[in-house]
Each structure stands twice: as structure tokens, then as C-alpha cells.
Design brief:
Blueprint (H helix, E strand, L loop, with lengths): L2 H17 L5 E7 L5 E7 L2 E8 L10 H10 L3 E7 H11 L3 H4 L3 E6 L5 E4 L11 E3 L3
Parallel strand pairs: 3-4, 4-5
Antiparallel strand pairs: 1-2, 2-3, 5-6, 6-7
Length: 136
């Protein structure tokens, strides 16, 4: 198990517990064969979200956008977390999903310590990544 992916998952799982009533939410975390972290969120017995912690290379694999669309077709919230240097490119890639799914997904970046920052919107070329600190 990748230590950094585990740190990111731990931070995100703590946040989910703050966002949803702990007595009614069940989360399940595991890593897939490619090293990605996957979190399922079940609230009151229904799947309400799926979250993917991408590695430095996993988000570049063929079919990633289709995998994100498959989650969104379930009509659950998608959260994608990617390394800080890659997250804005992931966000740009996901712009293709905006026509139907703009309000159903979020992108976060994570640093080498596993701290999360939300990526809000694509940057103007030459400007820094528009992200805000992840509020705990």
C-alpha cells in the first residue's frame, strides 16, 4: 500500500465524517491494482459518492475520463484527488464533463504530506493553480 495514498485517504475520510452524520455514513477505502485509492461513500444505505485518489501517472492512463463518466452516470458525486503538480491538468481534462455533470464532481490536489487543496477552476496561462486550502 502506497504511504502517500494512505495519508490522502485518511485526511479525506476524516473530512467525510465531518460532512455527513457519522451514524448514517459508511465509507470503504481500498487500493486498486494500479495503486489508485478508491473511496465509496454510503449514506443511509445508498451509494452517494465515489472518490478516486490518482497517482502521479494513473490519471494519464487511457480511459480515465470514461471511468469518471461511469461514476457520474450512477448519479453520485465524484471527487478526484491528484498530486499537486498534476491536479490542474486533471481539472482541464474534466472540463469535457461540464455540459452534464458540472455540479457533480470536484477536484482536489494533494501535496507530498497528503494535505488536500480544492482546485476551483482552470487557471489563466502563466498564473498559479487556483486552489484554496482544504478546511478541516
Amino acid at each position: 500500500m502506497d504511504d502517500l495514498i494512505s495519508k490522502v485517504a485518511e485526511e479525506r475520510l476524516r473530512a467525510i465524517q465531518r460532512e455527513l452524520p457519522p451514524a448514517e455514513v459508511v465509507t470503504h477505502f481500498h487500493e486498486d491494482e494500479r495503486g489508485r485509492g478508491l473511496i465509496d461513500i454510503v449514506y443511509q444505505g445508498a451509494l452517494v459518492g465515489q472518490e478516486i485518489i490518482e497517482t502521479h501517472d494513473s490519471w494519464k492512463e487511457e480511459g480515465r475520463l470514461a471511468a469518471y463518466q461511469a461514476v457520474l452516470r450512477k448519479k453520485v458525486r465524484l471527487v478526484v484527488m491528484a498530486p499537486r503538480g498534476e491536479a490542474m491538468r486533471v481539472r482541464y481534462m474534466m472540463l469535457e464533463l461540464n455540459n452534464c455533470w458540472l455540479f457533480y464532481y470536484m477536484v482536489y490536489s494533494y501535496d507530498p504530506d497528503g494535505h488536500l487543496m480544492r482546485v476551483l477552476r482552470p487557471a489563466v496561462p502563466g498564473r498559479k493553480e487556483p486552489a484554496v486550502p482544504y478546511i478541516q
